[in-house]
Here is the input.
Amino acid sequence: MKVYRTTSIALRALRRNPMRATLTTLGIVIGIAAVIVMMEIGSGASAAIRKSIASMGSNMIMIQPGTAASGGVSFGAGSVMTLTPQDCDAIIQQCPDVHAAAPAVTARTQVVYGNKNWVPFFVVGSTPDYLKIRNWTELDQGDMFTNRDVRNANKVCVIGQTLARELFEGASPVGKEIRIKNVSFKVVGVLSLKGANMMGMDQDDIIVAPWTAIKFRVSGTSLGNVNQSASSTSSTVNTLKNLYPSSQLNLYPVPSATQAADTPQPIRFVNVDVILAMSDSTENIPAAVKQINVLLRERHHLRPEEPDDFSVRDMTEMIKTFTTATSLMTNLLLAVALVSLIVGGVGIMNIMLVSVTERTREIGLRMSVGARARDILRQFLVEAVVLCLMGGALGITIGHGGALLVRYFKHWPVETSPAAIIAAVLVSVSVGIIFGFYPAWKASRLDPIEALRYE
Amino acid sequence: MPFLELRNIYKTYYIGDIDVPVLKGISMSVSQGELVALMGASGSGKSTLMNILGCLDRPTSGQYLLEGQEISRLSADQRAMLRNRRIGFVFQNFNLLPRTSALDNVMMPMSYNPEHLPERQARQKAEEMLGLLGLTDRISYEPSRLSGGQQQRVAIARALVNKPSILLADEPTGNLDSHTSEEILRLFGQLNQTQNITIIIVTHDANIAHHAERIIHIRDGIIDGEINPESVSAGAGGAE
Here is the structure.
């Protein structure tokens, strides 16, 4: 009730001089409009950047095997085979901050269809979750292969746009059989266009198949290290092998069953080249990394003093670079806007001081009919706040309109930011209070007798 | 017990090192329902006395009792409350808020009333008060469209709207022609009679003073004499 009455008195007082009130608030209007435009364009830009980072998989965590070393010579990351598909399953089940994980094996080999051939940059064997982790779930044609295909090591694959163009030249690849290193795979889907990644590599030059199929039927070897079980499986399944000169040479005669039984080979576990994991959000990446570290150390029976036999990487550096750049830009613009708000505030203070002088008689009169000093203080303070709030509202409207215009004419990404609007309202109220206080205080300290006599 | 009593009031202004005594021991009392004129030449201290009576200022020494309450030592906020509830002011230059309707002008003191009447009741009360002063058809007029007499009547309505027990008028007719002055003074008389409001008019004009029941002369900060105009009505001019 009191607030309502004081506000209506303030509004009435402002209405007595609408032109001056408008000009006074101009500083605030410009300041707030600038803040809103900056925030909306800034958040639009950072959303666009966030989106582009996300398209590369900003929440992605890469787990690679560690390094092998022999006599002081290390062989670099991935030179030991320590990661297993079971590790991947355990990560999915036991790390609460990991949203999804997929094992992956890679190969580099020739792909043939009809009279065309191509060597894709990425030949990836994984699970259906791979696309989810890569943020690539949209398919142009067909469908992704299923977990069942992974279990059965089915010869199916999805291919990227570049590969589709090179091999099929516009014809639909779905349902066609292509040969990967002479193993026939059926194309079940075509991935959507993704473009180049940060290093400039063509991400569409890819073929994704069940990791079991790539590992056991195609590569047989991974990382240049011979995996015995894979190579033997590959040679038994691929019946076309002997027809082509590119078939692997058997340096040694194939052991007979009796020989094999007499000289048992050490049975090695199945390893994968890399495990890709994904956290729910960028904020949860550190927690997820920590959980993965703890889990894998335990699974690999590493004693506390032993170094990790794997390494976990995330996109921190990439995210940091981008967010620093955008937040620096936004902060810079905000600082400029803030300066204009301060200038606007000084304008408010100036006009309020003039107003107090001009209305000295009114103040005296109000005091003589019983207004206490604090009533006068409140009246002028509310007046300044109302002035600033109106300026703020106008500024928000203009700023938002400006941002929409920018989007319409320049096609910049713009995002309405409720936080900026709330901040603008709060800022205009505090500008009103800060810069309205001194004039209001001055008004409240007037002597009623002097004020009444003031000409 | 008198309605209003001043006991040995002194007021001294300090301008730099110089003491300027304005009131030098004023004692007087006014009873409920009186219409008193305070007369004196300019510089006699009547305005200062008026400010003290109106609780706008505090005496340097002495006692001021209003309805038996000692008020010369009240705090600023307490005096503001007192002014709001018990005292109505009427000024020479009306002091209406510009570009504000007569009604809003009259409603203004009620917004400082601690009772805080709801908007509609306050509006009704202000309308009644304006009606009492014959301004029903001028309610929504702004002061610039009202004549001097009408403006002063709006100011009187404003002074009366909180039902004060005392009305202080400082040269209420100073800016009005003689005909309108006559009208306003008759209004004061009526209010005094019908509403039983104590009225103190400060003036330097003997003709105006003679509308009062009692005239108190002030000269150089002391009460110079007191006249009951009815007893000397024949020789009014001789009072000077």
About this structure: The two ends of chain A are 34 Å apart (CA to CA). Chain A touches chain B at residues 1-2, 5, 9, 12, 15-16, 361-362, 364-375, 448-449, 452 (CB under 8 Å).
